[in-house]
Amino acid sequence: MAAARPPSSCFVLQILLLVVNFNLSLPYVLKKCSVCYEENPSADMALDCANRKIENVPKDIPKDAVSLNLNNNWMQKINGGDFSGMSKLRILDLTSNQIAQVDEGSFIDLMFLQTLCMGNNKLNVLMSNMFQGLSNLTVLFLNNNGIQVIHPTAFQFLTSLQTLDLGNNRLRQITDIQPILQLPQITMLGLKCNSFTSFETKDLLLNQSSNLKELDISGDSLTIFSISTPVFPYLQKIEISMCFCYKDLQWEIPDKQFLRNISYLYLGRSIFSFEGITKVLESLDSLHHLRLEALKMHVYEGLLSTICKIPTLRKLDLFNSHIKNLPVKLALCSQLTALDVRKSDVDELAQGSLGSMKHLQSLNVCDNQLKQVPHDVRSLRSIEILNLNYNYILELTCEDFENTTQLRELYLKRNRISQVDYCVFLNLESLKLLDLSFNQLMTFENNIFLPQLEILNINHNEIAFLEILDFLGFQSLKQLDLGTTFFDGMTQRSFHKVNKQENNISSRDRIWELKLLENLTIELNPRNLFSSLQTNYSRDIVVFKSMKRYTAICNIFCFPHQLADIHRAMTYLENFTAVNVFIEAPSIDMFWFNPDLKSVTFIETDFSEAGPELFLPIPNLHSLELSKCNISSLDFLVEANLTALRFLKLTDNELSVINDTVFKSFPSLTYLDLDNNPFTCNCSNARFIQWVKNNKQTQVVNAHQYKCSSSVDKGESLLLEFDVHLCWDDGRFFYFISSTCLVVLTLLTSFIYNFLWWHLTYTFHLFLAYFYDSQRRKKEVLHRFDAFVSYNVHDEGWVYREMLPVLEGEQGWRLCLHHRDFQPGKPIIENITDAIYGSRKTICVISRSYLQSEWCSREIQMASFRLFDEQKDVLILLFLEEIPARHLSPYYRMRKLVKKRTYLSWPQAAEHPGVFWQNVQRALQAGDSENTDLLIGPAGW
């Protein structure tokens, strides 16, 4: 075979370009802010950066936030690029900082901002281009800033502004607000507690009337309020009061038409004399809602006749007025639909004071000193809302609500009621809300019937013994807050009887079901613990199928089994909360009957020995809180397979070291709170620290405030301030060894590639040949040729002239010749392998040129490998020249074969060629037995 042209031995160095695809989004953990958690993952992003001692707007705020709360920080200035790129922002709260300057164009990127709160800052001057870019702003709060100067064009960009609060500033001239009144969409303007001495419309030079509807012009310096020009044709609401002191105000409205649309008026702190208020009221023809605050009692008594004569008046507020007893004259206001006398020291409503109010729908007497339900309530047949919270009512009588059949909401919170008889609510068939919390109830009657009641709160009472049967009359109940009460027969009673056959229940059982109840809160009272343990062994069974939210709270110590059965019946439960109810993790079967649970909270429960089995029945869990639960490892949560979990709160636990791979078990996690855990600031948390800083999906809330329980410098430090590079430096020797090995491996690879490449290639194909032959033997595949002829190109003439005519022409053998039978385009070594193992025999035509050929050497080596591997007669050596044995020494494999076996010599057969070819024929005809001579020598021919 012709000598092969090996490929170039040059070492080609290929440089791999690492293409880094930079993500412009910032890590999800923020240094000074947290992303408000939303149950809906697709909800808009809201950021909470309040109360963080921030001095500048954080640079790591995500650009796609729609709400940003920077309230109560230490910022002194808003710079030009602070909100760059935040085009989606809708709400920005900068309240209670120390902002004294806003650079021009600071808000230029906030083209869709709708609400801007900048109250309680130090903005003394509003510059001309301060609000540039805020063309869609509708609400602006600038109260409590000490503003003294407003540039005439300061509000020129606020073309959509509707509400503006400039209260508690230092504005002195009404002309300062003239540009504001010209805004096309402005409807509400707050100017409370400024330094205006007068508010007179004759000083305003407006091109057109304003669209203003609400105006608050309260202030201690104000002496004159005058509307003498038709600049406020749409004004509906006016608030005028003193901020701190009491003084008279001059009211000048020469034409009642200027205030023809006023429907709401708020007057406070005795800004007018009796005559002054009378004059004000007489100037209004469409007053619907009047609020009088902190006026003297004699003023009220004198005004009532005037007030009650206003035919359009429907709502009257006498807030914080210290009037003690409502005068009977109030009965003159028979047209009222709402009366509010909150916080007015009322200890009695005189009989007859409310009796004439046949249209009264809402009565608020909360935060007073009433000792009983006012007698006149009995005659309020149209009353719908009655608020008696924060009084001193001792009891409810059967006559209190006998005629209030339209009552829908009844508030009796924080009184001193100790008993409720069934007759009290006998006629309240329309009642939907009843609040009896924070009273002194000892019992709760079980025959109260309120068929429309949806919300019941008896939280914080002294009820020692309670049965579900007590609520049999509340068929429409949706929300129940039982507070500090205990149950007997809790799991045996319920509200509505259901078909027994449908539930496959014995006839001895009685089934009751809460059809509409969705929200149940129980706060267990340890003082009544033992009386509550009296178990009712009846056969009644409760079913809470409609329950969606269940909260159980125990202040000191409780028995979990008290709540177990009732909880199991809530087959549609979505939200479960237990605070200090369980001493240790509950039994593994607790949630077997609650497959729809989406939120679970355990607080003050020992989960140190918890296993994953508890959470396995609720694979759709979205929110999990385990606070104050002695958790030191998260392995049990990993094994619980909570793939849908999005919210995880593990505050106040014992987590010191966290493996970052833990969170790979929560592919949906977006919110993680690990506050107040004793983190160890060393290399054991290095991976976790990196994960917190770099992950783009899970927000680790307030991670930059996590403190270390122990640190390298023994001082107080923060977890994320730990230098993780120290951990990598500790492995310097390892990295040195690794680098050294890499260099040596590179050099070795280069050497092998340049000098041993073909040897390795040959060895590889030799292995393939062995494998190929083994497979052929297993499959017993037939050979394509009788013999493969291995020869050098210099001997090609002899092969075609002498060998082929005899072996193929006369004897009929099928020979494989590389120039004729090799597959074009196929690698040479593969063609050689296929030829040797695809033929029964291999004939090597040996000459000096053959021995000097590299590829011929490869062929005979491969053939000899097959010879000694199979131990069969597969090799025939034909010498075309006499080659002494000493000349074969450099070719150790050839010399070894010649010494071991005989061979055919063409020079010796010159006189008898026929015998030579007969010996070749005998060699080709030889079988494959192991005892067959492998080589045919001169003695044979």
UniProtKB/TrEMBL annotation:
Any one cellular-component term (Gene Ontology): plasma membrane
Biological process according to GO: inflammatory response; innate immune response; toll-like receptor signaling pathway
Main location: membrane
Bilayer topology term: Single-pass type I membrane protein
Pfam families for the chain: LRR_8, TIR
Subcellular location: Membrane
Alphabetical list of PROSITE patterns matching this protein: LRR, TIR
TIR domain mapped to chain residues: 783-924
Keyword entries, A-Z: Glycoprotein, Immunity, Inflammatory response, Innate immunity, Leucine-rich repeat, Membrane, Receptor, Repeat, Signal, Transmembrane, Transmembrane helix
Cross-referenced Gene3D superfamilies: Ribonuclease Inhibitor, Toll/interleukin-1 receptor homology (TIR) domain
TM annotation in the entry: 733-756
InterPro entries found in the cross-reference section: Leu-rich_rpt (IPR001611), Leu-rich_rpt_typical-subtyp (IPR003591), LRR_dom_sf (IPR032675), TIR_dom (IPR000157), Toll_tir_struct_dom_sf (IPR035897)
Single annotated GO MF: signaling receptor activity
Signal peptide per UniProt: 1-25
Family statement drawn from the similarity comment of this UniProt entry: Belongs to the Toll-like receptor family.
Name recorded for this polypeptide: TIR domain-containing protein
Lineage: Eukaryota, Metazoa, Chordata, Craniata, Vertebrata
